[in-house]
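Request:
Um, any thoughts?
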Amino acid sequence: MSEDQRIPTSAPADRPSFTIKVDGNAISAEYQVQSVIVSRSFNKIAQAEIHILDGDPAEGDFKVSNTEDFVPGKEIEILVGYHGNEELVFKGLVIRHGLRVFSNKPSVLKIECKDAAVKLTIGQKNAYFYDISDADLIDELAAQAGLNTDIEATNTTHASMVQFHATDWDFILTRAEANGKQVLTHDGTLIVKQPEKNDIALNLSYGGNMLDFEAVMDARDQYSAVKSYAWASADQEVVEVEGSISSLTTPGNISGDDLASVIGLESCDLKQVGLSDTELQEWANGKQIKSGYSKIRGRAKIQGFGDILPGNFIALAGVGDPFG
């Protein structure tokens, strides 16, 4: 395999290793960890699942479950790598602690962990905000949950903004989408930013370093144009703004406009009252960006490599013209 097809692991990939820490201390080496699954994606709380073999039917006991290591509220860190050269891939809180007993295989202790941002998802709230931008509003909500933040600036300062019967998390997602931004949780930090093209983080190729690959394009996800409308009470007329994102770097040789022509919808229309021209523009642009990056969806399975994160760009080779 050529060098550009190798996954750039920090050490030879012949001996994987991992460490699970609870409140900063590594768990006992006697625990038989069956699997560790870490999931990260935009607009969802990062999570991890840990499965540990536990339970002795002869003794009628679950020794690992009996310990205080995985009581909900404990802080979990997961480090993975090769030959003991490990990097942190998840940090969060134990949220669920459960047992699964089977008739024909060993029983399992199942631990579900979530990023600390999970605190934003509980409790439907009502709140009023005055003279505040969406970026500052999101930062304020995140600070109340004890999170660090990395939030791109937004262009509009609202005279007032109402949060009505919504969790902080749902309200944050709504305000981020209105500004064309995505939300990511990363080890206690709330990141809000607009997707953008950056350097290629990894080269993947069919017949080379890809183990599994699945991809699909769907004409229903594409729009010829995106327009947003609002009623301007001062002028007693409808204000119309069209999305102004001219092009996005997306895979494949079939354009979004070609796919949009399959359905033939003249435009995707967004309607609301009381929005300024700037807000309408951000809303339309955000919908246009979301549609563009939805042109092709899929997944690729590769040798374990913890440096790839949501927002990174990868190059696909050998998967055909529509997806490459």
About this structure: The two ends are 20 Å apart (CA to CA). Residues 200-317 form one domain.
